[in-house]
Inverse folding.
């Protein structure tokens, strides 16, 4: 069910930009002062039922005064609340359908589904044996679907109830209905008394003891079973008191079991988590997602972060900041040549596969003109005309990268950044639009960021107050700006790295906090990736977008900003409104999987995951599409042997690549530099390790170009 569409429907029906909030509510309500319509999480029973429920509640929001809502505690004379509920529902539903005739069919089909599901208890009892108010309730809602009969005396009142126009009319007709039922009840009681007082066939009086003097303790209601005149037990007195209290609320003869059954079974319409052992039962905790305002505050453009970094350097010009480190710049001038070599390999492979794609789908057509070189064949062949070949046009491509800057990436951050820079250089070389972002969340940024925590967004918004997504570089940059941005990313990676290979000292302590490491908000990042990707695709008119997550694969848990109006117990499961569609899961990994699948639905992009690892202990089984007990050891064995693995359909990814990194031959190494070669066997051994990494890199190049050349 598309919740965004339902919210728009509610606003259109209301003819005002009222605020519509779904949430953990037991029933719908409307805040008249703030113009907020709160809708509970209903089960998906089809669009007809949902439109009926939304239309019904908007009708209340538009036309019902505070005293008329179902949960109102204000009593209006002797009229039972159920009478007011039934007649007011008739009024607001007729008015909303008169205003919007197109919704009449939805109401009719929706109520048909609810009657079939026995929301009103009519499958269990004969409605024509019920009282007037129950028959009126079913007749008004069923509109002929459930046959209902009325007597000639009842019909005028039923007609009046069906035509009420104002809340005062509702109150007035409810009084008439109450009095009518009360009069008929008294007439029925008088008739029953007369029937009870008539002599029996044998001539005996109905009461054989009539006229006898009552014995002590025989007064009505005073004698117990033992005839000793004692009062009932304390528990029985309490039950009698409760029953008497209930009678005071709903006078005898005025019960409305269809209304009562509906209120009791409304809870069955609400979304529920399947109860499992050791799990808190209840409704999934609802989140409205991340508001556009908060998304904009999570994103930092390159221009903004460059200003922050420049100010940081100015504050301490004598610091060892990586942004201006001369040894780091010297290292970069050498290393970027290696990246360019890798990018050249990617570009050549891409152009080769792109050409193969075009020629494999080429079409040849005759031009209608004679080919002079084939005229000598005119007696033996009809193929003597010139031909034209039309090459198939390959799709336009784009790449968006999201690089994990969490603390667990320290050991591989150099290699992952090298991978991102190489892909960016490849994109520039073959003219593919691209953008690259780092993402993380830190407590520091929660305090010093751009004020996400101060925004009063939608109720039950996903907590993103410490998240930051920073633009690293993009295809829109000119060469000078790109080189500067690529170096900055290189320097940040060096500052965070645990590597001991550096010939100079660079410390993350001298970085601006915007570049600090933290945790892994993959769920929030994947959600904001939808907004980024749609804008990117629209701007560049791209047909095939590739979203790449460069991460170690473990999403953080999430929390939801509590809605103070929630009044139902929630389970450990979370439901998130991700651009109008509900995704759900229990635990960060399940939610992340659902987010990725929804991201693909929204954008149509190919989603790829990249993980560089030193050994199997640095990545876990949680995101592997293999049997962990049976198949996983074989997968690890093959990965260790080949230094590379490519898995399909892993936690929402189209492709997931795991590249093995050898410390003696890193991703950015292009020349063989043995550390220890005391003998020829040592040299062979290290050269073999170096070749494994090169083999892994070549496989990676092939997989990336396969993905973006189709």
């Amino acid at each position: 069910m598309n919740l965004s569409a339902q919210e728009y429907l509610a606003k259109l029906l209301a003819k005002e930009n009222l605020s519509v909030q779904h949430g953990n509510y037991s029933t719908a309500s409307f805040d008249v002062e703030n113009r907020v319509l709160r809708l509970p999480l209903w089960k998906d029973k089809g669009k007809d039922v949902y439109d009926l429920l939304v239309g019904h509640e908007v009708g209340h929001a538009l036309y019902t005064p505070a005293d008329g809502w179902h949960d109102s505690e204000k009593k209006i004379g002797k009229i039972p609340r159920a009478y007011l509920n039934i007649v007011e529902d008739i009024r607001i539903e007729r008015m909303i359908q008169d205003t919007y005739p197109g919704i009449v069919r939805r109401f009719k089909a929706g109520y048909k589904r609810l009657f079939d599901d026995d929301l009103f208890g009519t499958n269990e009892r004969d409605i024509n044996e019920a009282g007037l108010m129950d028959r009126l309730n079913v007749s008004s809602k069923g509109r002929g679907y459930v046959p209902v009969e009325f007597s000639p005396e009842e019909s005028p009142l039923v007609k009046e109830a069906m035509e009420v126009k104002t809340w005062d009319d509702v109150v007035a007709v409810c009084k008439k209905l109450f009095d009518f039922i009360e009069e008929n009840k008294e007439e029925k009681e008088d008739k029953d008394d007369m029937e009870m007082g008539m002599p029996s066939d044998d001539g005996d009086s109905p009461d054989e003891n009539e006229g006898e003097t009552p014995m002590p303790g025989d007064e009505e209601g005073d004698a117990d079973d033992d005839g000793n005149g004692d009062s009932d037990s304390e528990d029985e007195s309490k039950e009698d008191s409760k029953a008497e209290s209930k009678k005071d609320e709903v006078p005898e003869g005025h019960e409305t079991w269809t209304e009562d059954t509906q209120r009791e079974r409304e809870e069955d319409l609400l979304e529920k988590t399947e109860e499992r052992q050791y799990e808190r039962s209840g409704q999934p905790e609802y989140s409205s997602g991340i508001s556009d305002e908060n998304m904009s505050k999570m994103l930092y453009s390159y221009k903004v972060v460059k200003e922050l970094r420049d100010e940081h350097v100015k504050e301490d010009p004598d610091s060892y900041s990586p942004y201006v480190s001369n040894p780091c710049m010297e290292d970069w001038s050498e290393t970027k040549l290696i990246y360019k070599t890798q990018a050249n390999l990617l570009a050549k492979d891409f152009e080769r596969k792109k050409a193969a794609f075009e020629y494999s789908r080429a079409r040849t057509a005759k031009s209608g003109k004679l080919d002079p070189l084939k005229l000598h064949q005119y007696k033996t062949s009809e193929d003597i005309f010139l031909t034209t070949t039309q090459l198939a046009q390959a799709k336009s491509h784009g790449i968006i990268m999201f690089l994990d800057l969490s603390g667990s990436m320290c050991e591989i951050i150099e290699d992952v950044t090298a991978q991102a820079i190489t892909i960016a250089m490849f994109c520039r070389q073959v003219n593919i639009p691209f953008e690259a972002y780092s993402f993380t969340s830190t407590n520091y940024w929660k305090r010093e960021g751009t004020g996400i925590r101060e925004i009063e967004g939608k109720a039950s918004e996903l907590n993103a107050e410490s998240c930051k997504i920073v633009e690293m570089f993009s295809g829109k940059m000119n060469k000078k700006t790109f080189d500067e941005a690529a170096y900055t990313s290189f320097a940040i990676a060096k500052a965070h790295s645990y590597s001991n290979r550096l010939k100079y000292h660079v410390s993350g302590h001298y970085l601006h906090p915007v570049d600090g490491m933290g945790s892994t908000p993959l769920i929030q990042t994947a959600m904001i990736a939808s907004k980024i990707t749609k804008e990117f695709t629209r701007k560049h008119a791209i047909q095939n977008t590739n979203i790449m997550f460069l991460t170690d694969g473990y999403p953080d848990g999430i929390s939801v900003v509590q809605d103070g109006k929630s009044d139902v117990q929630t389970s450990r499961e979370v439901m998130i409104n991700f651009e109008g569609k509900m995704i759900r899961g229990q635990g960060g990994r399940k939610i992340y999987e659902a987010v990725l699948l929804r991201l693909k639905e929204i954008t149509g992009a190919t989603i790829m995951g990249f993980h560089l690892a030193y050994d199997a202990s640095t990545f876990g089984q949680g995101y592997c599409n293999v049997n962990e007990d049976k198949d996983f050891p074989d997968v690890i064995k093959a990965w260790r042997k080949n230094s590379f693995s490519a898995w399909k359909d892993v936690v929402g990814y189209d492709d997931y690549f795991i590249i093995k990194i050898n410390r003696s031959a890193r991703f950015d190494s292009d020349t063989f530099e043995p550390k220890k070669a005391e003998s020829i066997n040592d040299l062979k051994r290290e050269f073999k390790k170096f070749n494994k990494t090169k083999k892994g890199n070549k496989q990676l190049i092939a997989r990336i170009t396969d993905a973006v050349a189709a």
Notes: Confidence is low (pLDDT under 50) at residues 200-248. The chain is about 45% helix and 15% strand. The CA atoms of residues 297 and 450 lie 6 Å apart.
